[in-house]
Write a structure and sequence with these properties.
Four Helix Bundle (Hemerythrin (Met), subunit A), 73% helix, mainly alpha, 2 strands, 1% strand, rod-shaped, two-stranded parallel ribbon
């Protein structure tokens, strides 16, 4: 039986599942994951901000709204220039497309320059402290005072080893600010809270010390005026007491000198020798008391001098006025700094990635290929703009 071979011929038409290019579908899928990522990050920050009463203000964290506004305008302008780039690619204007893409890349570089300056400014003021322990404390307590004392001790060690020059605190070692600040901030506060039985007064002293370094809404400077008025009275009393002891000590030394001079010419009478022994004992006791009084007097004098010298600029703080990087107290500041670094850093990475993608898709020939690729990047760039507007509203206001 002969086998016959039958051939079927059909004209199969292949149709897309979606009337969209594959690259555009891939970009939408990618952006859907990015939406979930940034939605989680932004909502986390919003929850922290709404649930915490003592949330740091933008001014305390060295955030200027006008810099955020400039960056917002720069990003929106870059979206417009990228849109013009895609339009010229579709119309075959290769030269014009390249010019508009160069303008877009320049705007991207300008945005990143502003962000780099912001990060550096926060590092300079101690908000960020890469490579070391955080300089931000949530409250003024003994742990904060210990960190402050350790910072000054390290500074003195560097000064002793290297001599004059710039220090990690940004202090010129020929300046008298360092010993004055050490005595007025660390020595006085440690002495006061060690002798003060009232816990509220001790806490107020710690709070005033932190306010001198970096005032915030949780560390009002009003307490500094009250402290200065009280310490001026206390300093006058201690100086008067010390002067009385010193005068008595000088009288005793004069009388002892007279008796010793008389002893060199002829033996002293029994009464005079007993008198000399009594005076010598009183002079020793007075010397010890004066040494202890001076140890209490010097930090007090430094505290009053520091308060008086900085009085016109209490609202600035030592860190801002002198460019120091001393430990500071900002309630919930560590949380803010961590979230800012995470969100702003993640957005900056996306901006860098978008700029690199524009370079990779540089229009080399006319046609729809470059236009399609840059069109997908344009969609991604719109998303970057929207995320930045959310960050600007949350962080800068």
């Amino acid at each position: 039986m002969a086998m016959t071979e039958t051939t079927f011929s059909h004209d199969w038409r292949v149709e897309r599942a979606l009337p969209i290019a594959n690259g555009r579908v891939a970009m939408w899928l990618f952006l859907s994951t990015e939406v979930m990522l940034f939605a989680a990050l932004l909502s986390s920050y919003a929850i922290f901000r709404m649930s915490v009463a003592d949330w740091p203000t933008a001014a305390e964290m060295r955030v200027q709204w006008w810099i955020g506004l400039i960056n917002t305008c720069v990003l929106l302008a870059s979206s417009w220039t990228l849109h013009r780039t895609v339009g010229y690619c579709l119309r075959g204007g290769l030269g014009a497309a390249r010019i508009w893409l160069i303008a877009t890349l320049l705007l991207v570089a300008l945005f990143l320059s502003f962000k780099s300056w912001e990060f550096f400014d926060k590092w300079r003021h101690g908000i960020f402290n890469w490579g070391g322990p955080t300089l931000i404390h949530d409250r003024a307590d003994l742990h904060y005072l210990s960190h402050l004392r350790r910072t000054f001790r390290e500074q003195h060690a560097i000064r002793a080893d290297s001599g004059a020059g710039e220090s990690p605190l940004g202090i010129n070692d020929t300046s008298d600010w360092l010993p004055l600040a050490h005595g007025g901030l660390v020595d006085w506060t440690g002495q006061f809270i060690g002798q003060e039985a009232d816990s509220d007064a001790a806490h107020q002293s710690l709070t005033n010390t932190a306010a001198l370094i970096y005032p915030s809404h949780g560390l009002p400077i009003e307490g500094l005026a009250t402290e200065l008025a009280a310490l001026r009275i206390l300093l006058a009393e201690r100086l008067e007491h010390y002067a009385a002891h010193q005068q008595e000590w000088e009288i005793i030394q004069t009388e002892l000198g007279t008796l010793r001079a008389a002893e060199e010419t002829s033996p002293l009478a029994v009464e005079d020798r007993q008198r000399m022994n009594v005076l010598a004992g009183r002079a020793t006791n007075l010397g010890q008391n004066m040494a202890q009084a001076k140890a209490r007097l010097d930090p007090l004098r430094d505290r009053v001098a520091l308060l008086e010298r900085t009085e016109p600029n209490w609202y600035e703080g030592l860190n801002h006025r002198l460019g120091w990087r001393l430990p500071m107290v900002i309630p919930n500041g560590q949380t803010w700094a961590s979230l800012y670094l995470l969100l702003a850093g993640c957005h900056a990475v996306h901006v860098i990635g978008g700029g690199l993608a524009m370079l990779v898709c540089w229009p080399r020939r006319t046609g729809s290929g470059s236009a399609a690729a840059l069109g997908n990047i344009r969609l991604y760039w719109y998303f970057v703009d929207v995320v930045w507007i959310g960050l600007w509203v949350l962080f800068y206001f």
